[in-house]
Specification:
Shape of chain B: extended
Oligomer: heterodimer
Structural class of chain A: alpha+beta
Number of strands of chain A: 6
Strand content of chain B: 25-35%
Order of helices and strands of chain A: HHHEHHEEHHHEEEHHHHH
Radius of gyration of chain B: 21 Å
Low-confidence stretches of chain A: none
Shape of chain A: globular
Low-confidence stretches of chain B: none
Strand order of the largest sheet of chain B: 1-2-3
Largest interface: A-B, 82 and 51 residues
Number of domains of chain B: 1
Number of helices of chain A: 13
Mean pLDDT of chain B: 94
Helix content of chain A: 25-40%
Largest sheet of chain A: 4 strands, antiparallel
Distance between the termini of chain B: 63 Å
Order of helices and strands of chain B: HHEEEHH
Largest sheet of chain B: 3 strands, antiparallel
Number of strands of chain B: 3
Distance between the termini of chain A: 51 Å
Structural class of chain B: alpha+beta
Mean pLDDT of chain A: 92
Number of helices of chain B: 4
């Protein structure tokens, strides 16, 4: 129960002043710029864009600065900002097969057309802290090599040609694309809504859910068929122009999980799949997303759905960190009246208990008990 | 026009300054909004919503009647206006050639150089597999 309580305005105002000062920290240390955040903490910016569900590097950097590096607070700020702008429409679906890849690896095939391209990755680093980064570090010029003109088709497309993997579901004629920012969520939810939910879902939550499937809670035997990161072009069919106009390019990470095969009396066995797609370089996020996407297909694939990661209502209702933090953190706001009523009830119960206890221990009662 | 969406407003403006521009007016003042970005299930299946992006748009009309539209990712309304102006100019027989030659072509060249640099750096991280020879007889 919420009751308007007055008072505390001055304390709040001063607390916010103190926050602004704490955010700035020691003023003899130079202030951090948005460019510095965007360039040097790029993966934090990517995460805030993904889970804030808004592609705008500069805004995400500002949110990180304002939130003092608290990424969930930054995501909250970005979500709130997006609610202030009108929506012009929806883009044409991006073509990830035509991505200008900066990284592309497959753990299922060594020799894929276009090759295994490591790009800027933490993989194979030794995870030893590097003291030389502490100050004045100047990196070497990146090595260069002649760029290949060989296309880099999606690994799943190659498997698909031989029918070894299920094909992606086609859109039904005239079907609209579900949008959970516009309509309330209902269960069971279609895959478009599930993927939208996972794309903006908390990386930590999805990581734990994906991990749980690997540990046996909804096992589905995954291989990382392909992970790719790079730039894709965005086009938008503008009504006033009358055709699709180019908007520029965005960075995306895509993960194709190849999972345990299934078949039936009427269908030849083939691998199944899970899909992950997120803004920026978000590998852990898209891998987790693909694991969870596959787990959530249990019902559709006729699998027993007993594990948390296979329960779409559980996953989709708890994946959003803005909703989650709102409900958890609201506990610290005043609940004085709520608590007073609980306290009143508890006092009453204790009084009744005490009276009953005293009665039970009264000499008469003891006598009766002895008889 | 895709080239212009990849350029900075300042770069477009600097190149437009080299031309004697005709009179023009805003048909739609620059405004900021959102576009919902879509992907496809599995990369090639049914579409789904990934998340939104900030987008700016504007429309410009030349005194001679040509109407140009400008759309771009981001919140730089001036950039959208400059793209709209270029879009109008390329339709004009008097300015189309000059805009292509003095604005778009150099920006395309600059974009190509930038992309080739990334591609060359990326190519250097491509794995060359070789088979280890086991034992020495």
């Amino acid at each position: 129960m919420y009751v308007a309580v007055k008072g505390g305005e001055r304390a709040i105002e001063n607390a916010h002043r103190l926050l602004a000062s704490a955010r700035r920290g020691d003023q003899s240390v130079p202030e951090i710029s948005l460019d510095q955040i965007s360039e040097q903490l790029g993966l934090a910016v990517d995460r805030v864009m993904s889970e804030g569900s808004l592609y705008d590097r500069e805004l995400a950097a500002l949110a990180i600065k304002q939130a003092r590096g608290d990424l969930i607070e930054a995501i909250f700020l970005v979500r709130a900002f997006r609610a202030t702008l009108p929506r012009f429409g929806a883009s044409e679906p991006v073509e990830t097969g035509a991505m200008r890849v900066q990284r592309r690896v497959s753990s299922t095939f060594k020799d894929i057309p276009g090759g295994q391209i490591l790009g800027p990755t933490f993989d194979y680093t030794h995870r030893l802290l590097d003291p030389s980064l502490a100050e004045g570090f100047v990196p070497e010029q990146p090595a260069t090599a002649e760029a290949s003109t060989v296309p880099t088709p999606r690994v799943t497309d190659i498997l698909g040609r031989d029918g070894l993997i299920e094909s992606s579901p086609r859109a039904e004629e005239g079907a609209s694309v579900g949008d959970l920012t516009r309509e309330p969520l209902n269960f069971p939810a279609d895959r478009d809504l599930r993927l939208q939910n996972l794309a903006r879902g908390d990386e930590g939550f999805l990581l734990a859910m994906g991990y749980s499937t690997q540990r046996g809670y909804g096992r589905n035997h995954p291989f990382a068929g392909e992970i790719r990161f790079g730039e894709v072009e965005v086009e938008f069919s503008a009504e006033d122009v009358g055709f699709a106009v180019p908007l520029g390019s965005i960075e995306l990470t895509e993960c194709q999980m190849v999972n345990q095969f299934k078949g039936s009396a009427t269908e030849a066995p083939c691998f199944t799949r899970g899909y992950g797609l997120a803004f920026g370089q978000s590998e852990r996020k898209t891998m987790s997303m693909a694991l969870v996407d596959r787990a959530l297909r249990a019902r559709e694939l006729g699998e027993e759905a007993l594990a948390p990661a296979q329960d779409e209502e559980f996953v989709m209702s708890h994946s959003d960190n803005v909703q989650a933090t709102g409900f958890v953190e609201h506990l610290k706001l005043p609940h004085y009246v709520d608590f007073q009523s609980e306290l009143g009830l508890l006092r009453k119960l204790r009084r009744e208990f005490s009276e009953a206890f005293t009665d039970a221990n009264a000499p008469d009662a003891m006598k009766e008990a002895a008889e | 026009m895709a080239v212009l969406a990849h350029a900075e407003a300042g770069e477009i403006a600097a190149r437009l300054r080299t031309l004697a521009l005709p009179a023009h007016q805003d048909l739609r003042a620059p405004e900021n909004g959102l576009v919902m970005l879509r992907g496809r299930v599995g990369g090639d299946g049914a579409p789904f919503n990934i998340g939104e992006a900030t987008v700016s748009r504007a429309a410009v009309r030349l005194a001679s009647g040509e109407v140009g539209f400008g759309y771009t990712l981001g919140r730089d309304g001036e950039k959208a206006r400059l793209i709209a102006l270029c879009d109008a100019l390329v339709q004009s027989s008097d300015f189309g050639g000059a805009v292509e030659r003095d604005v778009i072509a150099p920006l395309r060249e600059q974009l190509t150089v930038r992309r080739e640099k990334v591609a060359a750096e990326t190519a250097a991280t491509k794995v060359d597999f070789y088979t280890m020879v086991r034992g020495e007889g």
